[in-house]
Amino acid sequence: MHRITGLNVSQIRKDFPNLHVEVQGKPLVYLDNAATAFKPQTVIDAIAAHYRTETSNVHRGVHFLSEQATARFEQARDKVRDFIRARKSCEIVFTRGTTEAINLVAYSYGRHFLNKGDEIIISEMEHHSNIVPWQILCEEKGCVLKVIPFNDEGELDLEAFKRLVSPRTRFVSVVYISNSLGTINPIRKIIQTAHQCKAPVFIDAAQAVSHHKIDVQELDCDFLAFSGHKLFGPTGVGVLYGKEEFLEKMPPFHGGGDMISSVTFEKTTYNTLPYKFEAGTPHVAGVIGLGAAMDYVQSVGFEDMTAYEKELLDYGTKALSGIAGLRLIGTAKEKAAILSFIVSGIHAHDIGTLVNDEGVAIRTGHHCTQPVMRHFGIPATSRASLAFYNTKEEIDKLVEAVLKTKDVFR
């Protein structure tokens, strides 16, 4: 696919069939990209082509279809390696998504290398998926969970983090970009501080992967995970990156087919990396679709996408800030294209319902970040999350819909 010169948003929008549906008889304005992103036609075509002409399992057959499917599956792994600048393809493990990747590391690394009294550090702005697995581990192993606080702008307190680090710090797991605040965290500084006490670092990049170019070698993170569906790819497929030296010493997460080398009733030996973590039949079509999504993103160009989304964020911030009684939640200096807000006297769910009547799709609720809501003393926010196929005109429609909602509650 040829690279698009600049960012021709009108042309890009033609690549996404879902952008052209109607809601309530009005053109859809889709501003819920932090929940899941739409898929370009090339991704849909890649998945359909697999089911149409290449349906087969991978790594198991010598017939043509199996070899063809295996080749495309492993090509996608190589694409992920290059996309995040990993050293080797064996450091790329396919999962069902970020949630499973976090649980995999909590289980396979945490249960075997962390002990009673060891400390795990996360942040106050984590998604529940990066809280609950560590809580379960702490309950089982007697570890201690510590939390980095953030200020009222939604910025992590790095000085507090440094104070939390101790000789018992054994693991750090933090989000790259907050899904409810949009904050871009200072990941490099966090990793450097953690490594001073030799603690491995896990990065939840579920939101970052579609907004920021990721280089795991430059970051020097030990683990990183993301989900395909937030990168304009299919649901049900995700990626765990892990440094080879960590993955090698970790035991498998699941047992079953393809993750073994030899099985007897006396002993089982395990497959090499990354296959010892990929038990059973994988989501072959999903992995192929993820590879196609990465091809598409690279054809558009990350630099152009990031610059355009920054324009949208600035425009949306100014537009929403002009609404009387509206308060933005999450005003960090470094932000991705996420706009969470509350409106005085109106519940977030009412806002979501009424703007939907105008064809505008946003997310309302706690966004799987209840500690964030408690920090601000609110039950929920309305969240508009933007992608490079959105427009300023769509932000204007959101503003109009919010103003109409306010009129209803006068």
Query: Can you give the helix content as a percent range?
Result: 25-40%
Oligomer: single chain
**What's the architecture of the largest domain in CATH terms?**
3-Layer(aba) Sandwich
What structural class do you assign from the helix and strand content? alpha/beta
Residue stretches low in confidence (pLDDT < 50, at least 5 long) are 1-5
Number of helices: 14
Report the top-level CATH class of the largest domain.
Alpha Beta
Query: What's the domain count?
Result: 2
Q: Averaged pLDDT, please?
A: 96
Q: What do we call the CATH homologous superfamily of the largest domain? A: Type I PLP-dependent aspartate aminotransferase-like (Major domain)
The largest beta-sheet arranges its strands as: 4-10-9-8-7-5-6
Shape: globular
Name the beta content range: 15-25%
Largest sheet: 7 strands, mixed
Q: Any idea what the radius of gyration is?
A: 22 Å
Q: Determine the CATH topology of the largest domain.
A: Aspartate Aminotransferase, domain 2
Number of strands: 17
Distance between the termini: 52 Å
